[in-house]
Backbone:
């Protein structure tokens, strides 16, 4: 029995040494599960998804507002250097003639999802010979994002999307999160200081808001968390109407800024 006891002590000591080397001793339970995507923590969380949401919350601010006659999405476009060609960086992207998107988070992940969304839209058109409804596109993109939360050897997308479209004579505004969750909004904000942005929108939004007023409100919402001087090259705006989705030119953005600021 003494031999067995000493063996237990030896194994225990060895475990403590390895645990200390691995950093497991003294760490909380969340950290123990933080490197596994497909393993739930004891509190019922997938910690990597929470980290992905943190990447979204640290991203550039973006905002979306649905109006009576359209919808607007807008985002801050950071210029890390004056040497950048600003025309090569785009945050507002057209998916189909009547659907567009914007993001907060990691740009490369956004690029991949936009390419996938365009492919989904084209496949739908080839089968049914009509444009894909916004809600169906959102659901299928969210399914792609959800697949990356339960597969080994991958990580969640570090990006949240705001997708707007026009169907059945009315505008739509949806959000897709890294978890694969998707939901509709009247108005919302993503990215850095999104809580302040949502608070501002709650005060300014009303059901009778028209598109022109929505564009002004979107710019003012971005200004709440904007660092430095807001110019026509530092923000991007996309609008969705009955005639389709399009990105505003820098001249149009400049006119809106001159009227507001």
Residues:
């Amino acid at each position: 029995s003494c031999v067995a006891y000493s063996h237990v002590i030896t194994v225990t000591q060895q475990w403590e040494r390895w645990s200390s080397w691995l950093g497991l001793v003294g760490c909380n339970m969340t950290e123990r599960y933080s490197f596994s995507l497909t393993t739930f923590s004891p509190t019922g969380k997938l910690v990597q998804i929470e980290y992905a949401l943190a990447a979204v919350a640290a991203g550039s601010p973006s905002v979306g507002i649905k109006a009576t006659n359209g919808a607007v999405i807008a985002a801050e476009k950071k210029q890390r250097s004056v040497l950048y060609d600003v025309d090569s960086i785009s945050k507002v992207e057209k998916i189909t003639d009547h659907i567009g998107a914007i993001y907060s988070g990691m740009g490369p992940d956004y690029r991949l999802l936009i390419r996938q969304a365009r492919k989904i839209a084209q496949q739908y058109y080839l089968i049914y010979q009509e444009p894909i409804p916004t809600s169906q596109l959102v659901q299928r993109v969210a399914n792609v994002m959800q697949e990356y939360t339960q597969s080994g050897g991958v990580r969640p997308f570090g990006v949240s999307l705001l997708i707007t479209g026009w169907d059945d004579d009315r505008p739509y505004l949806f959000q897709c999160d890294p978890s694969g969750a998707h939901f509709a909004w009247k108005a919302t904000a993503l990215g850095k200081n999104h809580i302040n942005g949502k608070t501002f929108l709650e005060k300014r939004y009303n059901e009778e808001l028209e598109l022109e007023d929505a564009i002004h409100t979107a710019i003012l919402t971005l200004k709440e968390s904007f660092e430095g001087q807001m110019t026509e090259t530092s923000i991007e705006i996309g609008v969705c109407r009955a005639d389709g989705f399009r990105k505003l030119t820098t001249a149009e953005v400049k006119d809106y800024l001159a009227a507001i600021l």
